[in-house]
Amino acid sequence: MNLIERVVAISRRRSPWICRLNAGSCNGCDIEITPLLSPRYDAEQLGVELHGTPKHADIVLISGTLTLRSREAILDIYAQVPNPKAVVALGSCPASGNVFAGSPLVLSESLDSVVPVDVWVPGCPPRPQAILDGIARAARLLEDGATKSQLQNWQGRLS
Description:
Keywords: 4Fe-4S, Cell membrane, Iron, Iron-sulfur, Membrane, Metal-binding, Oxidoreductase. By secondary structure, the protein is α/β, with parallel strands linked by helices.
C-alpha cells in the first residue's frame, strides 16, 4: 500500500460518510435522524457526514419495511456503495415489518436476507443516541475490517 492509499484509508476510518435510505417507513426513524445533525447530538464530532449519493458513502442507513418495490432499490443502492461498506438497519421495520407485517406488498423476510446488515438499531423509532451508537459501531467494524461485506461470510442473497 503506497502513501496515498494509506492516507485515504486513514481518513475514511476517521470520517464515515452516511447514505440514508427510506425503504418505506412511517418516517419515525427519519425524524430521529434529523437531530443527529443538530448541535445537540453533533454527529459531525465523530466525523459523520450525511451524503445524498451512495457512490461516496461508507455506511448505508436503511429504515422501513422491505417491500416488493424497495427491494430492488435497496439492491441498486447497495451495489453503488464502494467497498468497504457497512449497513445499519434502523428500527423494527427492517427486521420484522413491524406494523406493516402482513401487508400484501411487504415481504415476509428481514432486510438481512437481501443485503448484509452489520448493525441493528432496535426501537420504534430508535432514539437519536441509539442511532449514533449504531453508526459508531459500524465505523469501528469498518476500521477493523470486520463488516460482513469485508469478511464475505454473509449467507443471504444479492439478487
